[in-house]
Amino acid sequence: MIHRFGRSCVFVCLLLAFAAPTAAFAQGDAESESADADYDANLDQAARRVFMSARQAFSAGEYEVALERFRQAYQLSPRPTLLYNIAATLDRLRRDEEALEGFKAYLEASPDAEDRTEIEARIRVLEEAVARRQAAAPPPDTTVPDDTPVGPTEPTEPIEPDPVDPVRPEPEESGGLHPAIFIATGGAALVVGGLLVWSGLDAKGKDDDVIDYVDNRATNGATLAEGEQTLDDAESAALRTNVLMGVTIALGATAAVLAIFTDWGGDEDEPSSGSLSLGGAAGPDGGMVGLQGTF
Known about the structure:
Blueprint: H1 2-59, H2 63-76, H3 80-92, H4 96-109, H5 116-136, H6 179-220, H7 224-261, E1 275-283, E2 286-294
Antiparallel strand pairs: 1-2
Helix pairs in contact: 1-2, 2-3, 3-4, 4-5, 6-7
């Protein structure tokens, strides 16, 4: 009996001994996960600050500085969009081979990217440029060295290689309209609108002349022929005003539509901050366009 009680005590002690460390380990895991989450948030915030600094350097044309800071941001927070920013900066620096690898890495990291079609088109342009440059480069020296000792020779002057024009990617055709079309249409709308204002004022004055003739025809001695001429002038002015109003409305609507389909951005590459798109809107006073993006 005593022996059985002793074994029961040992069993209970073992249970308590293993239960206590288990609870401690569970609490330690929860604290570790919370610390990891805080650490990741701090890294993401630091990456965002470095990214903003890199984008400012890119806009200022300091591409070497922008490249270094984009890479630092990617090391802190490996977002796929930062791979695009790195590749776009390398493209500006005309480091075509590295830019080509960067764009491919971006598409590999973001297989469902919305700008995949544009990036693939840019990759084809860079591949053609690299291929042309490699084809124009002289072949490597494949001469087998001779082991026979050679005596001293006269020093020769270094031969300067012929200058090779840098290979520039061919500009891609823009899918939008030229801004000059919108400017011309908008200018025409303003001119016709000015004529509409003048014509409206003129028609109002001729209407007043008709009313004055009707009210005072007995006292001012005006003839019937003069009255008919006054009425004809008022009708002509009203017709002209209506025509100008229709033309002004048509030109204004056309200018609003052109504002949406006009290529305002050109072919310049801006660093991506997650997503980048060109939007437009039309209203009663004209149109507007703008870029929007998120990090």
